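quick one before i forget lol
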Amino acid sequence: MFNLDLRKLAMSAVAASALMAGGASAQEACTNYTVTDGDTLSTIAIAAYGTSNYQPIFNANRNVISNPTELKPGLVLALPCDDGSLPNGQSAQELIAAEEARNANNKVSNVYEPPIKIVTGGNYAPFADESLTGGGFLVRLASTALNRAGNNRDYSVSFVNDWSAHLETLLPLGAFDVSLAWYIPDCSNRDYEWSAETEKRCTQFDSTVSVYDTVIGFYTLPDSDYAKARSFEDFKGARLCRMEGWFTHDLEEKGVFEPHVTMIQPVSAQECMDAVLTGVADIASFEVQLAADAMSDMGLTPKDIVENPFVNTVAGLRFVTHRTNPYGRQYMAMLNAGLNEMRESGEWYAIISDTLREHNEKLMAASN
């Protein structure tokens, strides 16, 4: 679904924009970079890779970045290599092979336990797609987690492209045990009025820890007052575009919902970007990697549309089970244990970067 080729956008116009922003002229892929005053993740990505998509940098430095808008001077960031590996480290393939060898002799229980039935949707590359190794990185993370941290469970994976059916029928009826993957709000936060969708996700489902944190950006015209907004309070009164059927709990948590804003909900990210260009919307909001893809497909640069550097949200994709499943919480605990071990060993990042490398190679081959 997302084009994550770090070098797809042309360097000239965007590099000039980065230089004007200050501090981002010396970054290079496959090196460690020390943040200086004026840097943002976007300007660093533009200088190092020629694209405003900084999600790969965020992935590689998740242990030291909690808020993408708050980079402190002196912070050292690992800028991934073109193949996704980290500077001065093992390649993703080497690390994955080492972890597989280390866990090859996990003991199998003598007690029969039925395979865990996993469902996801296809055509969602690099997250979930049958054409990618292991079915995409969400499937690889789930299947690997079930064989880490002392787990040794069989599983089956099915692709059902009707995503709404996962939560509406397939999990509630017990056709599947676990669905990959969903944005789940912070269900401990009752300080705002939950929408019906937030209520459902928080009361009918159990979920794992966040499997993959995505940065959600807010995009405007360069000369818009909203480009200079310093808080979500400054967005009130705006016409905000996010695609139909997409989650909005991050907006609800920040008080950015109707009637405080006017929501515009077309089908595609490109339509949201076009709405900003034509003045139908003031702000478009979705994943930074999807925004970079949409801008590239539309031939846009930061001279046309810019990301607000002060305001964004981070949303976590999680594996979920329905609360009527008698073994659901056991499965969530198993997956959590495996995922936590994978993060500590580096296998979590290796699987993601290896899948992104494969996905990029397929995209480049298709464009030639």
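fyi Residues 119 and 158 are 5 Å apart (CA to CA).
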